[in-house]
Amino acid sequence: MKRCRMCGKEITDELSRERGYGPICYEKHLEEVKILQLELNFNSRFRPDMPHSERQKIINQLLYGQSSQR
Ligand SMILES: [Zn+2]
């Protein structure tokens, strides 16, 4: 059983399961990622020549780290 990472509700549709968020929470998640990406542009861990997958890894770490602390 898959649950939304943000609100903990059960996810029923396939696409949302893959995302790990319900449709509404996914929109909020995207906003968070956008803000985070902007912040990361000023972060020393973030370099312009960094491959996209590395960026995504750092973003994921920060996002999931943040949500588990709440
Ligand atoms: Zn949710």
Note the main attributes of this structure.
70 residues; mainly alpha; 3 helices; elongated; binds zinc ion
Number of helices: 3
Rounded to an integer in angstroms, the radius of gyration calculated over CA atoms is 13 Å
Helix/strand order, N-terminal first: HHH
Oligomer: single chain
* Structure class: mainly alpha
Largest sheet: none
Unreliable parts: none
Gap from first CA to last CA: 23 Å
| Total E-strand runs | 0
Which percent band covers the strand fraction? under 5%
Residue share in helix = 55-70%
Mean pLDDT: 82
Instruction: Give the CA-based shape.
Output: elongated
Distinct small molecules = zinc ion
Describe this structure in words.
With 70 residues, this protein is mainly α. It has a domain at 24-69. Helix content is 60%, strand content 0%. The protein has 3 helices and no strands. The chain has helices spanning 14-19, 23-40, 52-69. The two termini are 23 Å apart. The model has no long low-confidence stretch (mean pLDDT 82). The structure holds zinc ion. Residues 4, 6-7, 9, 21-22, 25 line the site of zinc ion.
Brief characterization of the structure:
With 70 residues, the chain is mainly alpha-helical. Helix content is 60%, strand content 0%. The protein has a domain at 24-69.
Topology:
Blueprint: H1 14-19, H2 23-40, H3 52-69
Bound molecules: zinc ion.
Zinc ion (ZN) is lined by residues 4, 6-7, 9, 21-22, 25.
